[in-house]
Amino acid sequence: MEINGKTRVCGLIGNPVEHTMSPVIHNTLAGRLGHDLVYVPFPVGPGRVSEAVAGADALGVLGLNVTVPYKSEVMDCLKELDPLARDIGAVNTLVRTKGGYKGYNTDMEGLYRALLSEGVPIEGQEIILLGAGGAARAVAYLCAVKGASKVYMLNRTLSRAEEAAAEVNGRTDRQTVIPMLIDDYAAIPDGEYLTIQGTSVGLAPHADEAVITDDAFYRKVRTGFDLIYSPWETKFMRLVRAQGRPAYNGLKMLLYQGIIAYELWNGVHVADEDAQAVYEKLREHIGQSGTDRND
Ligand code: ATR
Q1: CA distance 73 to 44
Q2: pTM for the full model?
Q3: Which one of 130, 159, 199 would you pick to mutate in the ligand 1 pocket, going by the greatest count of ligand atoms within 8 A of its CB?
Q4: Which ligand 1 atom minimizes the distance to the CA of 130?
Q5: What structural domains does the chain harbor?
Q6: Residue 180 above 80 pLDDT?
């Protein structure tokens, strides 16, 4: 694209930002939709987030994504907070408004849209969630808000799952989340569950690990969804597929968190065919073009 005097700027703040795929998402969308917009990564050093946000506002930067380690810290630098982001306690998208930025969490809406795009509902479902860290807590909250009937939250450290469950159940005023020790998975009633892998286990370089490896557990999985997308197929996904069930990685979640941010910045709706084109670009970028195993 040609940059001119009217080109609008969006970007990413975090530390580090060198390996981000967000520019692929946003610059591809801008190109396809004919928007005069560029998206660039901005590495921000420790303790400089508020300066970065104020500076971006002064420069008229239309929108920012926020990544590790600033998703909580940035909340103190905003003019306004979307209620979902406030309740989750993490912001990954800033939209410039008059007088400052408004913060959103499109990670969780992104997960929701990714599940929808695969035809996997949350409402009325009983769900197994592995993990109780920052990411899994947000997933538990999303599931509760979107009407899951139960979420069995399994974690290595029970106290962390108990705290997360109390927080989510308290906020939603329903006892949706049931905290459990991960080793007690046999106590989950027989059934077929949407199972979301929200721990950091399975991430490269520990690609050959999963928090549960027992086939008896995987017979309870109707659909597996891993938040990780590197490696492309995690050990968790392999174990789900070994039972003949579909398993998805986190790339569509990454895709849709970006698409929702782009929609907020530009006031547009991104059509399915554009989303699909961006998804193909992301797959090319990580060397995984071709057909999906579930296709
Ligand atoms: P994130 O922000 O990515 O969620 P986190 O808050 O550090 O990262 O959470 C990591 C999650 O992975 C936690 O659920 C953690 O379990 P604990 O709460 O018991 O620490 C889980 N996890 C990490 N390494 C693990 C391992 N080797 N075995 C089991 N669970 C593990």
Answers
A1: 12
A2: 0.95
A3: 199
A4: 14
A5: 8-105+252-285 (3.40.50.10860), 119-245 (3.40.50.720)
A6: yes
